[in-house]
# Entry
Amino acid sequence: MKDLRRYLVLKYVQYLVLSSSNAISTFLGLLGSLYTIIILQSAKVSSKSTAVLIASLAKADILVSVSVVSEMVIWTFDVSISSTAFTSALLQNLLTANAHISCLLLSCVAFEAYLITFFPTESRHLRTVKNATLTSRVIWILVAAECTLFQTDDLLKASSTSAPTRSPCVLLFHFSSTAAALLKSLSYFLGILLRIVNVYIYYKIFFSMSNR
# Structure
């Protein structure tokens, strides 16, 4: 459907074109995700692998909603939080998780579009609802593990000043800090790679359709 294509374009601009999300793109993205979830409930939309990936992409904005609503509640009602650093890190990690899930799912949609364009018959056994559901779950699990590691690292950094020098927590802090740093570097380079791959895929698809 045209509305779903527009939604994908919006998400590509938000996560793979813009260097960072701003208030306008975030608001439009939330509205688009809400509208997309409603559309996908319609009987007119067939249950295909692409629809499964798009549904998971739309649901990823729940993380943004939680972060935005929490900040609004804290700011509006002046809620007192015992651990401000922990809460701030958690809200930021939710936004990071949303961005990573969205980029990976958008890349999956692009790869599927590539298969449909160039290998429609050969790839039919790969482009199934079961595989799309499994792929979405794996992405969510991996990003959830990443978010947990980042949150653990932030928590240990906040509590490291009060920990004894030879405490086992110090070893845990160094391990989590190193792992988090490596993962952030990997995520950064993976993000650049995904941008390049997505541009290449749609470049090939565009010129393939033009030649036809």
